[in-house]
Amino acid sequence: MLETNGHPNRLGLVGWLGGGRWGAERYLYTLHRLTGLGLLAYFLLHIVVTSSRALGPAAWQAAMGRVSGPIFVAGEFLVFVAFAFHGLNGIRLVLVELGWAIGKPIEPVYPYRTSVDEQRPLAIAVMVLAGLLIVAGGLDFFVLH
Amino acid sequence: MRDQALWTWHVLAGLVIAVLLGLHMTIMHLDVIVGVFNPADPHPIEWGNVVARARQGFFLVSYVVLLGAALFHGLYGLRNILFELGLGTGAKKGVSALLTVGGVALFVFGAWAAWAASALARAL
Questions:
Q1: Interface test with chain B among A16, A30, A34, A44, by most B beta carbons within 10 Å
Q2: Does the model's ipTM exceed the 0.90 cut?
Q3: What is the CATH architecture assignment of A22-143?
Q4: B106, B104, B79, B81: which is closest to B93 by C-alpha?
């Protein structure tokens, strides 16, 4: 076990910035956390704003009027992007945690192989799916409306 | 043991969110491409569509379940991030208490809003 000398997370937030030997998945980890925090901040406000529907059409339309315009549309699209990434990457994390798509255990014979390489196709597939969903959302937000 | 149970709930809540928030995003933001549950008007936030959805028991239940799952998933995730920054025992207890009280208060408020909107829509 890693010796932490009473400091279990010595890098703190700085550790989010570098992938190091963990590679691309470490940046997915950082993005997962950033998008999660963004979605949480939006969600807390969303609860308050959308509760106005309980007060009738005038209150609802007034609330929607306060959050309309191009800046809010762009912000909502960012929320959609965060949702697409966080949701699909979260499904990848669940699959990996359950031991799927990480390969079978092998003897540690030189040259050593890392299980990160076994996970990479899943990460790529998930990011392609997220990209397709984001493109569909972008079309709906900015082109078809 | 307790943290393991909370983590399991965190993962299960994430799967519930993937389904229900996926449906919500499809209704609200893929409305032109997919076009479901918006019978009154092309735009999903028009009052007629809000009322049409609020009249359906499915949406009342799914909103409350999504509200609870998302609050737990999000606030537990925030708690984990804060704990990793090396908080002391007292600060950890304070953060847990604050997030629990805030989460329960928002759940009660959001569930009331969903129920009241449903009752209003049925009365119209």
A1: A44
A2: yes
A3: Up-down Bundle (1.20)
A4: B79
